[in-house]
Amino acid sequence: MAKNYQSKQAIWWYTKEIFLYPMLNRALRLTEIDIILKIAFFIKDLHQELEQLHSKEFPRTSSNKPFTVYRGQCVSEVDMEKIRETKGGLIAFTNFLSTSKQREVSMNFALLSLRKNPSEVGILYVMNINPRKATTAFASIDSVSALKGEDEVLFSMNSIFRIGDITKAKEHERLYEVNLTLTNEDDKGLRKLTNHIRKTNYPTENPWFRLGFLVKKMGHTDKAKEIFQTLLDQTDDDEAKSTIYFELATAYCANGDHKEALALYAKQLLIQRKLFSPDHIFLAPTYHNVGKVYYDLGDYTKALDYYKKALEIRKKSLPPNDPDLGVSYNNIAGIYEKMHDNKSFLEYSKKALEIGKRSLPSNDPDLAKTYGNIGLQHYNTGNYPEAMEYYNKTLEIQEKSLTPYHPDLAMCYNNIAGVHHAMGDNKSALECMEKAHEIRKKSLRPNHPDMGMSYNNIGYVYEQMGNYLKARSNYQTAVDIAKKSLPPNHDFRRIWVMNLERVNNK
User: Fold this and answer.
1) Residues 386 and 324 grouped into a single domain
2) d(CA 213, CA 215)
3) Which element (helix H / strand E) includes 70?
4) Which residues touch 59 (CB under 8 Å, ≥6 apart)?
5) Which residue range forms the structural domain that includes residue 307?
6) Do residues 252 and 264 lie in contact, with contact meaning Cβ atoms separated by under 8 Å?
7) CA distances (Å), 162 to each of 84, 128, 178, 363, 481, in order?
8) Does residue 89 fall inside a structural domain?
9) CATH code for position 493
10) pTM (2 d.p.)
């Protein structure tokens, strides 16, 4: 392919190469970063060719009529149940989406998939398209496709539909017709969601910046560091450097390298103080993240100082219900929890929750963090049923909005495990801790402090269950990690050493 490939023939290659389209769509669907980086050039070419075909086929000045396309496929029972539960809501396809104007073509594909996967559920998507107000690029590709006669319409990545009626198909007992309508500019639910996404995702138009940010947000921090370091080496522009230092610092912090993160934030602040006034809104995220580093290091006084610097700037520059203010209130609440100042903790948590409910989508990760903080307060005061209720709200949001191996999901399982343990259910506690541990093993480096926390917590439950051999092994691993990743005076390091010494005396 590499020898003969031309960027203007991306759709032809997509439909011609039997290995290419399943590999590409699997990578996009499952966020397989290594593959996405290797074929990023092809993804860009394919999207651009689709946009060009779309603008020719559906010019804005034309009165294009609505039409229907079909797609047949199989899904698991679990995914089918999620579709049923989301009726009336939105469904997004992160991959390129092949459809046909011929119902029979898609129905045959669904039936063939069912024969190959008898334990799954067949779906015939009936997709209603209004080209006049569509927000996604799509086009008929028969004229440029390597496969003729399928009347294929190809949609670009991230097409979003609203789910309508779901009915059982007569062709097979395990086949359903699911009506979808392509969202458009007038869809208020979509507009609220996309406006929030645009605000929270990387604002630059540079595709490599955006890819690096997306990769980091999904938890692939090592790959993100590679992308941002390459960008840093290629620029002399101070504003670009400032932004890259910020992204690199957050990636290092996520990997537990707090010293390098602080050094990068310091470089960014030097540039920002040269370019902007002391209370410019651009400084707020930097101060906020420096506070997060000190929080992770257990220096809560310095963390509170930097968090409050960020909050003061945001209060001067942002409207009262801006989500960034909610983030500031939320994290300051977390500091007060560590300082055992329950009055201040509740004050700031409630402010964060009020803002979150007014300004964030119901499944936003920042809202999940606020619920988690309130759950923690209930846990600390011994109100375990209330704590479990808020932690379950956190988990419900995070399972919908985060990747399966995101570190925040691990922390939520860890917190739920703590409630189970406090209520005397060590078996359930251990199950949740093991879930948290598996997520961390896939998303964090082996010596990350959160890995130490997992080993310590699992060791503690084994100790309570009388299995001192497994308790000792886990405690020892936690202490070994602490010696490599935490300062000598850190609370966690001190507690983990104390736990190991206690079980050694049993």
Assistant:
1) yes
2) 5
3) strand 67-75
4) none
5) 207-504
6) yes
7) 12, 10, 10, 17, 47
8) yes
9) 1.25.40.10
10) 0.53
